[in-house]
Amino acid sequence: MWRKILICISFLILSHSGIYGQEELKKISINGYLSSLQSVMFDTLSGPFINDFLIHNRLNIKGYLNNNITAAIEFRNRLFTGDMTKTGAGYSEITGSDDGMIDMSWNIFNEESFFFNITIDRMWIDFNYEKFQARIGRQRINWGQTFVWNPNDIFNAYSFFDIDYIERPGSDAIRLQYYPTSSSVAEVAVKADRNNDITAAGLFRFSKWGYDIQFLAGYSNSSDIVAGAGWSGSIGSFSFRGEGTWFHPVRSFSDTSGTSIITAGIDKIFSNNSTLQFQLMYCNSPLDLKNFTGLYMGNLSARELAFSEFSAFGQFSWAATPLLNLGLSAMWFPDLSGYFTGPSIDFSMAENVGFSLIWQHFRGEMSGIRSRINLVFLRFKYSF
Length: 384
Known about the structure:
This protein is mainly beta. The protein is 6% helix and 59% strand. It is built from two helices and 19 strands. The protein has an 18-stranded antiparallel barrel.
């Protein structure tokens, strides 16, 4: 067992140290990070406590074949250990597979007290010529305009509460883009998942009246017709963003009114390096949340963002010094009689080395039961 642990650690170290030999190859760029994440989950301070530890190495490799062709592959290499890995095979099995048309997630080692997973979440080739661009492969297609909830993001919806995946998941897709002007784009994208469900849609984005405005329409997860719009601009000194999407089942088109999700928010950067954000969301058919694990679903659908008819979000962050950032975020879910609070501290210890302390507290009523949960994360991160 210890031999396998050493192999895992050696792989992480070598993947980092090997980048220096690549710097001479000007047509290849390599970057990433190495982080450790200690997490503790508990109901009250009296326990019980669930402790887990994660070592996470990310590698981003991009090759510039010529002026018109670029290719990329990006890895997540993660070593899991702790109480969750001892609960049974379910945790490692979920981690060891992905929702792509091609499963590119593998558990290299899977022991009783730890497992090591490698996941390829980006692997694409990009062609561009004058006003045209085409990208084929596993990629991130981001159509969202707002910060927290993105109903326009029908290809790659994600959970705000997943603090260890800032890159967000990718899709196995084909994306075609045409830029008629410097401030507009027309695009079409098609993706398939492991269940052979298809999402296909088109989007047109343009600038008008000082706003970036977009319209989209298509077919989602082989089940829904979708149509939506989004915008980003400013009102005075505040940025103003929003988006909305309508989902309607194809098989019961005349029987239901569909699901509508609309969200809008404002944000502002102040002269003292602090930022303030507010966002509201409305959904006429929110998801019935059974437990808190639903908040951490790794592969959400854009149709499943809401757990309450109305939801509200607020966040304040302050750069107290060039090295220290303090933050506080909160959400309100009226239908659950619940809320979320999330204070955080980020400290730059040295160049490319950071420390983060994050607390997530949830409280609400689900399935007639009043419950709460606390998660505390301690992270050290080195970027290269």
